[in-house]
Amino acid sequence: MSKYLYGASIQGIQEFIFKTNKLREITGASEIINSITGLEFLKIFVKAEILETNLIQNAAGIVKIVFDELEDAKKIVLEFPKAVYTMAPGIVVSQAIEEINGDLVKAIDELEKKLAAEKNKRPFPTEIGFMGIERSRRTGGALVEIGDNNRENLDSATKAKLDNADSYELFKNGLKEDVSKDQIKSEMDDISGGSDKKWIAVIHADGNGLGLLIQNMGDVLKNISIQEQIIFLREFSTQLDESTKSASKTAFKECIEKEYDPDYGYPIRPVILGGDDLTVILRADLALNFTSLFLKEFQKQTKERLKSLYQKGLKVIENGLSACAGIAYVKKAYPFHYAIDLAEQLCKSSKKHVKKGLNPLEMPVSALEFYKVNDSFIQPLSDMKKRTHELNLENTYKDISFNAGPYLVHGNKNAENNLCHLVKLIADLEKFEKENNNKGLGKIRQLVDEYHTDPARAEMFLGRISEINPELGKIIHDMTYTSNTSKISHMQDILHLMSFRKNERN
């Protein structure tokens, strides 16, 4: 007897969430997205007993369910999108049904092809705005509510976000279970820690080796029954989701919890947290440590939680799943749709870096990359790094680069491209600063500026520093290493990271 695989993919999630720079609207949108694929919402359309036995995935904007009856699958196809559009105006739902003829793996593959085809279709607008209808001046959407002195005129999407802005289920589920409402604030100033502190960070992390996983999983699933395949896939999806949340909770406890301020609350808000995806906004000086802790704990959690699947043949997860992350350091007024795009580009750059030279059957290691936006130029990451991290001078040597990332999270702590090495360099400089009345950081900043304007004079200046203060000269020397005959320096990255710690306003 045939079974039927239903799949839904939520599109436009990031555009829906980051269409605004107002934190209340961002968090309200993220709460809506989190609830759309939640069990309680799915129970409206699917019988509880079906979800209990045949739900394969419901995280990260993806839903997959196996139905015994075609009519049950058709019911969710008809009802689910309308409910989503009502909750989240502007969101698009792609859906498909694939008949399972004894091979669930093949059915999933065919389902993904159908969903990909659906994504390419032009969505029908859910908001109809006639010429004579008044629109929101900020978003351009058709108004559904006229505001007063305390609230602006609202279109349907903004109203839905604000109606959910006080919910904090995502925070409870992904960071701290016993958090109270008064410990979570809803303004960007609260994240940065006050109006005089300008910098925040947007982090995006994503798991590695998905193609390798699917290949290995296909080999395992082809030898078991369909119901066993459903159980296997559900366990993988559930434990992967729990691993991400557990890792973020550990990183929160070790890095963020002690930073609670009664006036500003916790300096972090989760935006996307599910599957193997993590997107958070937090105070700039906490971002590197939080991200490093999350990546390490994610691999540890997946190794422990997926152990039973490893024993069933999923050998690629023997040491857990790795992940990569990107950190975009921006001023709190910076457009957030650009910030999240930059964080994703940095994450992709890390993934590309760790995959170089790998055997196709080898799991990449975890890594992260960061970038501090000091101007208003909006360019691809490669162009931004070329402009800010490379010496773009004519008629002079260009054998030093400040493009030292991405940084590996695990491995040899003495390796120049390892995060531990960067952290040690920062600790050495901080120690020197403390013992010498803050006379090191300014010299390094001046040296970096000299390299960008006149490298020959910079070399002379470095020699002078080493002559007058050998200790500082050695610290600076340790910040530079040779790779493929070119010199790579951590100096610029260190200046950026220490600027957050020292609370500078540049």
Task: Describe what is shown at a glance.
By secondary structure, the chain is of the alpha+beta class.
Mean of residue pLDDT values: 88
Number of strands: 15
Query: Overall 3D geometry?
Result: globular
Radius of gyration of CA atoms, rounded to a whole number: 25 Å
Question: Strands of the largest sheet, in order across it?
Answer: 8-9-7-10-11-13
Structural category is alpha+beta
**Helical run tally:** 20
Tell me the strand percentage band.
15-25%
The percentage helix is 40-55%
**Which regions contain 5 or more consecutive residues with pLDDT less than 50?**
none
Task: Write up what this structure looks like.
This protein is of the alpha+beta class and 506 residues long. Helix content is 48%, strand content 17%. It has helices at residues 13-17, 23-36, 39-42, 48-54, 70-87, 104-119, 156-163, 169-174, 188-192, 210-221, 226-256, 287-305, 307-311, 336-355, 381-389, 419-435, 441-453, 455-468, 470-478, 491-501; strands spanning 3-11, 55-59, 62-67, 92-100, 143-145, 154-155, 199-207, 268-274, 277-283, 323-331, 367-372, 400-401, 407-408, 480-483, 486-489. A 6-stranded mixed sheet has the order 8-9-7-10-11-13. The chain has a 4-stranded antiparallel sheet with strand order 2-3-1-4, with helices on both faces. It has a 3-stranded mixed sheet with strand order 12-15-14. A hairpin with an 8-residue loop joins strand 5 and strand 6. Helix 2 crosses helix 7 and helix 11 (226-256) runs antiparallel to helix 12 (287-305). The longest helix has 31 residues, at 226-256. The N and C termini lie far apart (67 Å). The mean pLDDT is 88.
